[in-house]
Request: fold
Amino acid sequence: MERRAFPAMGTDVEILLDADPVPGVERGLGRVEPEFARLEALLSRFRPDSELARLNAAGELDAGPELLEVLGLALDARERTGGRFDPTVHDALVAAGYDRSFAELDGSAAGGPVPAGGAVRIEGMRIALDPGVRLDLGGIAKGWAVDRAVRELSTLGPCLVNAGGDLAVSGIPADGHWAVGLDTPAGPLTLGVVDGALATTGRDRRRWRAGGEERHHVIDPASGRPADTDLLTVTVAAATAVEAEVRAKALFLAGAEAAALEAEATGIPAVLVTDDGAVRLVGGLR
Reply:
C-alpha cells in the first residue's frame, strides 16, 4: 500500500493506493499534491489573488473552467436543499469571525449575522454576483478536488483520498474494504467502505470564541449565524465527495430528529452524533 500525505486547502490530505511502487505509480502519486495546490490557488477565499477572491472583490468575472464547474455544483446544491447548502455565506463567515485561515483565526473581526441567499448569475464563462454577494466554496471545492484525485488515481489501482474528512475511494483493496475510522464521544466507530465517498460536517473542531460566545464554521444560511442545532456531527455516505458534503451540511442544519427522518425517507446513509454523545445510524446504515 503506497501512502502520501501533505497539507492543502486548510487541512491534511492523505492518499492510499493499493499498488506496487513502480515508476508509473510514483509519477501518478506525485501529480496529486501539485494539483491540490493549483486548485487551492484558484478557489480559496483567503488568497487575494485567487480567481474566487477576485470575483468576490469585483462582483463579476470571466471565470476559468474549475471555478465555473464548482460554482455550478454549489448553486445546484442550493436549489436541491432548499437553501440549506448555500455558497453565498462568505460574509456570514467573516461576520462570525472566520475572516482568515483557521490557523490564523483570533475572532477579533466578529460582527452580527448576515443572511445568505443573494443572486448569482452564470452566462457562458461570465459569473456575476448581486451587490453585496460574496462566495465561499471551501467545503464543496475540497470534495470536488478529492473526487478529481480519485478519478486520476483509479487507473493505477484501488485508491482512497481523504482531505480532512471529505473522502472518496475507488476499487477494493486486498483487505476487501477500506476501513474508515470516525471519532465519536462514545468511542471510535469504523465504517467499511467499498465504493463512493464520505463527508463529515460538524461543530466539534473548527470552533472559536468571538463577541463573548463560542462560534463555529457551519453557517445556517437562513439566519446568517453559526448553526444552532442539537447535532454535533453528521457523516454521510454518497456516490461522490461533493454529494456527501452537500447532504451532510443539509442534514446537520435540519437537527437530529428531522435529519433522521429525512435520511430514512430518502435512503441517505448517515451517522448522526448529538450533543449528548449519542450515536445514531440512519438511512440504511448498519
